[in-house]
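Working notes for the structural subgroup meeting. M.R. asked for a predicted model of this chain before we commit to crystallization trials. I am recording the input and output together here so anyone reviewing the notebook later can reproduce the run.

Input as submitted:
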Amino acid sequence: MLAAVAAASGAGVVLGAARRASTATLEQIGLARSEALRSPTRLDPPAPSRRWEFGEAGRSVEGRPIEKWTSRAPGVERRRVLVVAAIHGNEPITRPLADAIGATPLPDHVSITILPTANPDGWARNQRRNAAGVDLNRNFPWRWSPSDGGPGAGSAPETQAMMRTVVDGRFDLALWIHQPLAYVAPLPGCPTHLADAWLSTVGDRRRTGLDQHGGGETWCARVAGVPTMLIEVATWTANPVLVEQHRRGFSACLAALG
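Returned structure, recorded in token form:
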């Protein structure tokens, strides 16, 4: 499976670095990420059995594309799912997990949109914030605070791109991927059995009552009205075993979504 993920992803060098996370330094991993973003290689669609559209949700502060991958249901569409990853550029499993989700076989009634690197400037630098120093997961217009949310609610171009994607997509489920806190949190309006299905392959805990000020996942649930889950992968590593566990959690979640 991991070989298929690497072949299917436009950032195979990143996953290769993640496989060596036990011996490589964070600096080396950051350099590999940066090189992948400077010299992107468009390979086959993440899931070759499906037709994928590759576009942009917007541009970062420094003008990097915010990649947007979309695959429409080949059958009668009943569900639309959004996956947002790498909002914090120093969370090394988030992009590889988005790649793995993109390589996962999907039911014919499911359409999916993936933002694999929502903060490309931060990812290139191996830093949490964007190039302007804004923590994007404090920048959304839900209980926004000037203490850590940037110059204004929704001010960052990356935040605006994520918001447009959510509003325009009419999604049935949105999945926001972070680390390292080892829980799955269904936000208000999201059935808890979806979180339990994901957790059936992972073994972390289910968290309830999440209300992150300025958080993309909280804005998505409480303002945009999209059923939303926050996936917090354990540890600061990009361990391939964790990637595979959460990829299977995603599949279990889709099955529970129906």
